[in-house]
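Entry for the shared binder. Reason: the reviewer on the internal report wants the predicted structure included alongside the sequence.
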Amino acid sequence: MKNDFSNPKYFTNRELSWINFNERILWETKDNKLPLLERFKFLAITASNLDEFFMVRVASILDLVEADYKGRDLAGMNANEQLKALRKATRDYMKAQYATYNRSLLPQLSKTGIKIIEEYEQLSKKQSEFVDSFFDSNVYPVLTPMAVDASRPFPLVKNKSLNIAALIKRKGGKSKLLKAADTTEFATVAVPSVIPRIIEIPSEKDDKQTFILLEQIIEKNIQKLFLNYDVECAFPYRIMRNADIELDEEDTADLLKEMEKQLRQRQWGEVIRLEVEEKMNKSLLKVLTENLNVSEDAIIPIHGPIDLTVFMKLLSLIDDTEGLVDKPFTPQPVAAFENGKNIFRVIREGDVFLHHPYDSFEPVIEFIRQAAVDPKVLAIKQTLYRVSGNSPIIAALAKAAENGKQVTVLVELKARFDEENNIVWARKLEKAGCHVIYGLVGLKTHSKIALVVRKEEEGIRRYVHLGTGNYNDSTAKLYTDCGIFTCRELIGEDATAVFNMLSGYSEPAFWNKLFVSPIWLRDRFNSLIDREIENAKAGKKAAITAKMNSLCDQKMIEKLYEASAAGVVIRLIVRGICCLRTGIPGVSDNITVSSIVGKFLEHSRIFCFYNDGAEEIFMGSADWMPRNLDRRVEIVFPVEDPSIKEKIKHILEVSLSDNLKAYYMQPDGSYAREDRRGKPSVGSQDTFMKEALEKKHTKINSSDDRRFVPIMAVEHDE
């Protein structure tokens, strides 16, 4: 009997899988082998990730519920079922977050002599006087309390802003100035974002440093904002709004202006979550829920500070971090480009592979810099999805245009939560004389490609950089990514075709080497998997090894199930969402899935097909998700240089051997660390850092159990 690989019981819901991924990050906060302040960073990352998840993913499920959408996801759940499951899962998750903070992180921090005041009542007399003085001098002038009555409607509360709500009652009867009744009234005040939220105050003799949160300073002094009133109670709260942007691009004459309009509206979307201090007065909570139009299911009581992302700033405030942080890693120079070598001459000698952040990102920047001033360079073309705040690549592209080069830049305006930044860069590039395009209607351009056209003695030569990560010099120090420089003719022809497709209406009839979505990529992956299936059926060794950020495309998962059932050995390294399930007899018993959560955010996409011993390896910008395969412009490229192939196979094998920072999917869909009793300890990121340093003959002291600084960044919409 033929197995139905589309059976919903073979799949995990996408959103619940994401919660599971964020739980793996939360587990890092509980790891006592990690330095304490790095665990605080992981805690902040879990909070930031959860905020974005609510604003985008939960918001989209709510939209489906409100639209009475009856469809079911790949796991067989309708929108209402998903929403119910998500609300329970996120509540349980947040309880675990705050339990870790209150029971583990905070007490351990206090033992180091660094104290965070939990309640302002804990302040000593000296500290109390300091806090009051700080409020009078620095906070009071900035605050604007907002009363609510018949003439003053409930104010618009900004998305993700921290506020303090209060119930107040007039002293001594009615006001002479206002016709206010002698009743309890509501007021709210925004905690100002222009003042640091963590404030250092004088310490007691046994403490090294003491901190208090800004909202506690305001709560302690809130009576000063309402001089003619008694403040009956005051509690902090925060709202989350629907921040998912929908653009009707076909009816939009100017995408740039429409995006700016949508971004302004994002701050005032529908309220989908209300976080309140768990001890909040019931009458006060009722006022908030009624005015914000929030259901009871959307109220999240918090036992601790609201918005844990604040602790990302803690490290910068600590004077003595000895033993509380680990040593940072410096990306190493790339040997091929050392000693001031001309970058184009090096690429002509052979393809060059970069493995970030172990290899420096500087050659990628230098590629554009040299092209900008090289008299032989005629044109530069590049896609930009996310760039840093002070991007050297943007500066180099602008310089190239000023030098008379033909510069074409695709700036993706729809890169979620980087839209405003990208609008600024698009305008700067246009002013410098670059031709700026925004991609194809209805599609995000997520591909990572840069093309330099150079006139040489032999004729026109095209130099190409292809990568798995963004052209962002900041995140290149935090994300693991791979890239290749090449001047292979067929890849150069394909690169030209990509930009002609993006800037005009030239749809190539075929591609020489590149796989490009949304039309060609899925079929190419299917054919590669089918070849492994045929080899397995013929009794040959068949194997697939793939590394990606997310795996949630139903058709791709079904194809992997088909391959597994045929005997193909499939090893997957999936950092985040994974809707595939392992260990199902006759379906996925030849599939393993691991997820690495460590110092760096795993971001590279690598695909290796055994091909009866003639292995083919590909890298690119695409995960196996519907959006990457069907709704985005993505590029996957072959690795053809034999020595680079060996380097990439080494990366995969080391990653698959990780038993320090990797979690392995269990048959029930949960994840667990490998039992490494009696086995040598292997940390993949540890290994790659050590290898990068050893290439420069730098001695390092490390042990099998050495752990590293968790500086993972929130990846947004990758």
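Summary line for the report: The radius of gyration is 28 Å.
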